[in-house]
Amino acid sequence: MARPTRVSPYLAELIARPHVSPAPPIGKTFRMASYNIHRWAGVRGGKQYEPERAVAVIDEIGADVLALQEVLRPSVGDDPLRALAEHLGFHLAFVVTRLHKRGELGNAVLSRWPLAGALAIDLSFGRLERRAALAVRVSDGERHLQVAATHLALVDRTRARQVETLLGHPQLADGPTVLVGDMNAWRPTKASRALDDHFTARHHNANWPASFPVVRPVLALDRLYARGVTVVEMGAHISEAARRGSDHLPIVATIQLESQTS
Questions:
Q1: Tens-of-pLDDT digits for all 262 residues of the chain?
Q2: Is residue 3 part of a domain?
Q3: DSSP E strands, 50-190
Q4: Taking Cα atoms as reference points, which of 77, 132, 138 lies closest to residue 109?
Q5: What's the CATH code of the domain at 221?
Q6: Which domain holds residue 102?
Q7: How far apart are the first and last CA of the chain?
Q8: I want to staple 137 with a disulfide (CB 3.0 to 4.6 A). Which of 38, 117, 244, 250 is the partner?
Q9: Hey, how many other C-beta atoms are within 10 angstroms of the C-beta on 217?
Q10: Distance CA 168, CA 133 (A)
Q11: Which of 84, 209, 66 is CA-nearest to residue 149?
Q12: 154 lies in a domain?
């Protein structure tokens, strides 16, 4: 079989849900989650393909805004991501990071509220890893929130360049902002210190929910950084379904969004 073609990350999907009932306005608090779904392969990985396991976990979480990493959209057969958006009645954006032998692989954001814009930010600075962020603007017409969902590199030096790019991007320059996803941050590095300085001083595994590996979580790889909003609480979602749904646990945060003027 030929190897997948190397491509630059691109926005592949932006779907509004005009047929669903309008969502209520964004409340002062709402729930946001991040989940590395491991290509729908469950905890075992490899060639396993069990989208229903991750979907069951997502149903348990009940998030209003959901960031997903390692989303596989198969080139043959039904698309679990579109089916999930239909199931939730949520708006959807998806950025392809790279082409997998079984389809497109990338990051997604699903939102109860409309997405008033979406773009791909290329973070592919290493020769071996294709990485990207999906930046969206969640809005109910009165309140809005910038969300950047990503899956950063394994290599420290590359991850530092990715963080520098994200922090300097105009999409994340002002206003209420959340940077969320699989940060691959298992120890303090230049990248983690930059995130600390820009967002918050919580970058040690003792102060973040451990989310990996799912069989015995000890590493806080999955993170949520906020500016201009308050993270009321944050933790890993632990359940029997979550222990089977992926090799990561999802993290779930309660976000407090203050009154805004357009």
A1: 445 556 789 888 899 876 666 777 888 899 999 999 999 999 987 788 999 999 999 999 999 999 999 999 998 889 999 999 999 999 999 999 988 777 899 999 999 999 998 999 999 986 777 899 999 999 988 889 999 999 999 888 898 999 999 999 998 887 899 999 999 987 777 787 787 777 765 555 567 899 999 999 999 999 999 888 889 999 999 999 999 999 999 999 999 987 665 4
A2: no
A3: 65-74, 91-100, 103-111, 115-122, 132-139, 144-151, 177-182
A4: 138
A5: 3.60.10.10
A6: 10-256
A7: 52
A8: 117
A9: 19
A10: 13
A11: 66
A12: yes
Q: Which amino acid would we find at residue 175? A: G
Structural domain contains residue 248: yes
Is 2 within the bounds of a domain?
no
What is the domain count for the chain?
1
Place of tokens 């950025």: 95
Query: Looking up tokens 């210190």, which residue turns up?
Result: 193
Query: Is the bond preceding residue 51 a cis peptide, omega within 30 degrees?
Result: no
**Nearest to 247, CA basis, from 221, 229, 208:** 221
| Radius of gyration (C-alpha) of the chain in whole angstroms | 17
Per the CB < 8 A criterion, the answer to whether 35 and 58 are in contact is: yes
Please tell me the chain's helix, strand, coil percentages from 3-state DSSP, rounded to the nearest 5: 20, 35, 45
